[in-house]
Design brief:
- By secondary structure, the chain is α/β, with parallel strands linked by helices.
- The chain has a single domain, classed as Response regulator (Rossmann fold, 3-Layer(aba) Sandwich).
- It contains six helices and five strands.
- The chain has a five-stranded parallel beta sheet with strand order 2-1-3-4-5, sandwiched between helices.
- The protein is globular, with a radius of gyration of 15 Å.
- The N terminus and C terminus are likely disordered.
């Protein structure tokens, strides 16, 4: 991943001073440098960002809170990216998902098209590519009101499957 200076990114949030207006993004990646770069870029752009370092922590976070976007590495310990995407869609979690990887063959197979991945970022990627993917994915969010946390927890309990 290229890491040009983040000083060129906007410092003020386009969502105003109220944090509640900022889209919530969950970032899952086991590479600390990648996580640091992504989180800093997204926070400087005004997003509310939570980061986790493996697939199991990502699944716990996805079932515990509402997120407007999920950005996940494909190869991580615990659960990999395609397992997380599969679980999210099986549990009817309809937020957009961006997959970060060097290969996307798995997601492009016809039997996996129903997983509805909003975007892909091929490693290494630039910060402008990241921001373009995030903005594009957030524009794909469902127009319906987000489900409440309690409703989500009942329908998306973590499972061993």
């Amino acid at each position: 991943m290229s890491t040009p200076g983040t000083d060129s990114l906007p410092v003020h949030s386009p969502f105003g001073d109220r944090d509640a207006d900022a889209p919530r993004i969950l970032v899952a990646d086991d590479d600390a440098v990648v996580v640091h770069t992504i989180v800093n870029a997204l926070k400087r752009a005004g997003y509310a960002v939570t980061a986790v370092s493996d697939g199991l922590k990502a699944w716990e976070a996805l079932t515990a809170q509402h997120y407007d976007l999920f950005l996940t590495d494909d190869q991580m310990p615990g659960l990999n990216g395609h397992e997380l995407v599969r679980r999210a869609r099986q549990h009817k979690l309809r937020f957009p998902i961006i997959v970060v990887s060097g290969r996307f063959d798995f997601y492009l197979e016809p039997e996996n098209e129903e997983w509805d991945v909003a975007g892909f970022l091929r490693k290494p990627f630039s910060l402008p590519e990241l921001m373009e993917a995030v903005v594009s994915a957030l524009q794909r969010r469902p127009a319906v009101a987000p489900r409440r946390h309690a409703d989500r927890a009942e329908t998306a309990k973590p499972s061993a499957a």
